[in-house]
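Posting this for the archive.
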Amino acid sequence: MANLTNRNRSSYRDRIREQRETNLERLEREAKRSNKAAKLFMLLLLVGWFVLTHMKRADAADGSIIDKINVKFTQNYGDGGETLEPTIETSTSNISIEDISYAKDPDKWKPGSRVLVTIEFSAASGYYFGAVWNREAVTLSGAEFSHCGRIDDGEKLQLKVYYVPCAVLGDTSSAGWDYKFKKAVWKEVDYAPGYEVKLYKNDEEVGTKKVRTTTVDFSDKIEDYTKDKFYYEVRAIPMTSDEKKYLKEGNWITSEDDVVNSHTGSPGVTPIGYNTTTNTGTLPNYNGSKTSTTGWYNPGGTWFYYDTYGRVATGWQYIGNLWYYFNDQGQMLTGFLTDTDGSVYYLDPNMGYMKTGWEYINGAWYYFNSSGRMQTGYLYDGGKMYYLNEYGQMVAEQ
């Protein structure tokens, strides 16, 4: 009886083990079928993606892929000192320019300072931009390549380049002479690297110079005590081959018979009678003997002063308890005067004598000390504190 019981138990365990093994085999078969289905599903997804993303290239043999472009920048010149946007064109077929943007507002451009330009192109229906874009794929004129790449699955292309703004140089607003009428002086022109100057004597050109400053010394061309008429023409110009790529010369401006401050380029006061004398009498000699001309002398509106020996006065002269200044030609000067040591004085515009104290000149107050020198900086006078700017003009009081 005991042996029968043990056999029954053994038989029951075998059936359980067989059923378990059968279930495991079934699960393995189902897992394999699931893996195959999953793999097939993933394969179908990959095939679908490949078809969708590459079907646009299916007609490559028919020329629908665009892998090169041509872009041309044309400079546009406005009025003097004005910077304009360039004309941007493409000669490549089946594409068009959709948008142009600049990294800096065109109103803030400066000639010669390059600007980043972004251009967006669109492909015509049935055409698409290729995947590889580099410098060799872009034929560019009038600008410098920076970067290029396609966007929107090849329907658009974005090109970034550097463009150098250009301009016609403006004209100087003031052209005249220094106090000795030997040095041409004019006001600076915006963006001008240099200037071309032509000197004329009695309407005949006698000299030409190109400089990077706003002054030219013509002492070697203009004689002392001359009765000839001298004037000059000046224009702003580019000086180097690189500057000529984005700058054009300005207009010729003829000088005035006027004194111009070489520091500010602003008009000053013309010495009385410069080059206007009609005197045909005998010039005083310098051999120590007297001539018929002594004291004040005014030929044709020009004031001179001769000492008792007939020698023409030059430089500072103390006459009748007043100081006067005469240039190298003996002409009495008026208005502002910058002496050789850099000191600035003011000579009465009518009588020519040196002024001192407070003077109201052309809408501004100036102060000249007891020696006639114009004061700048802080000044204490009459119990008040004043401030005079670098040009001597009062800008504040306390």
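Residues 2-54 form the longest helix (53 residues). The CA atoms of residues 356 and 369 lie 6 Å apart.
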